[in-house]
Write a structure and sequence with these properties.
Elements (H helix, E strand, L loop, with lengths): L1 H24 L7 H13 L5 E5 L1 H6 L9 E3 L7 H14 L6 E6 L19 H19 L10 E2 L4 E2 L12 E2 L5 H16 L3 E6 L5 E2 L1 H13 L4 E2 L10 E4 L2 E2 L4 H12 L1
Parallel strand pairs: 1-2, 1-3, 3-7, 6-8, 7-9
Antiparallel strand pairs: 4-5, 10-11
Helix pairs in contact: 1-5, 4-6
Length: about 270
């Protein structure tokens, strides 16, 4: 029995060492850390009285800030951060005495349904957040070293002012999606609205480009929340044609980004 235990220990010891090394020494860094850094650097350059787009990848891929004119910036993150990431970004601007004159908050249809994922807070990360990120780092390390699986690397496409897209989808069939606010989003939406009212910032919540449709009954309840809390909302959105779809149902191809941008420019003005 003892020889077997020694043999078993010899097998698992390297694994225990590897896990311990990752958990102790790996700096917590989620997949989108480079995007966080990229958008945070923009915050440092922003002046007062600017127009800011906050949102997820539907906004990052769907709105070209340059086409809106001077002093317009797109600070979109991804759906993992939901509206709570935008709240942190807005607070950063206000703390730097760079209060925007107008903000547009744009998220994909089911982005409003999501809860905040551990590890995707922009500030006040807890032990749980750091642990979650380190475990994912370890999983990716095992994939690369043991199974020789390379995770696609996040690359910033500076020309497109967002994450570089993968290959475009082909023949995507639109579906109806429910839109039901998560409790995390409800709280952060109300907090954003209160901040805007306090600092006299013009704001509107919107829905990002999508090839899919919204279930009408869920849309009614969605609108009701905003009406009850007196929060500005516009539910019109750019329906992506199949010929313009990028690497996701809510990502317009960079080649056609100007089309969705023009749609929202007319809608907002």
């Amino acid at each position: 029995m003892r020889p077997f235990l020694n043999y078993l220990l010899s097998l698992i010891s390297p694994l225990i060492f590897l896990i311990s090394t990752v958990l102790i020494f790996v700096v917590p860094k989620n997949y989108y850390s480079d995007l966080e850094y990229y958008q945070n650097e923009k915050i440092k350059l922003i002046d007062n009285n600017s127009t800011i787009f906050f949102g997820d990848s539907s906004c990052g891929n769907g709105v070209d800030a340059k086409l809106f004119g001077e002093n317009t910036y797109n600070l979109s993150l991804t759906g993992s951060y939901i509206t709570c990431g935008s709240l942190v970004q807005l607070n950063k601007l206000i703390d730097r005495k760079k209060t925007p004159k107008e903000i547009i908050l744009m998220y994909t249809i089911d982005g409003y349904n999501r809860s905040l994922i551990p590890g995707y807070k922009l500030d006040n990360k807890s032990f749980k957040d750091d642990f979650y990120i380190k475990i994912n780092s370890f999983k990716n390390l095992v994939k690369r070293v043991v199974f020789k699986i390379k995770e696609p690397r996040l690359v910033i496409d500076f020309e497109n002012d967002y994450i570089k897209q993968k290959e475009s989808l082909v023949d995507y069939n639109p579906v109806e999606i429910d839109i039901n606010l998560s409790s995390d989003n409800k709280k952060c939406i109300i907090d954003i609205s209160n901040l805007c009212k306090k600092y006299n910032i013009d704001y509107t919540f919107m829905i990002g480009p999508n090839i899919n449709l919204i279930d009408k009954s869920s849309l009614f309840k969605f609108k009701k929340f905003f009406e009850t809390n007196q929060i500005k909302l516009n539910t019109e959105y750019y329906r992506i044609p199949n010929t313009e779809i990028g690497d996701s149902n809510d990502h317009i191809s960079p080649v056609f980004k100007s089309n969705s941008t023009q749609f929202y420019k007319v809608l907002i003005k």
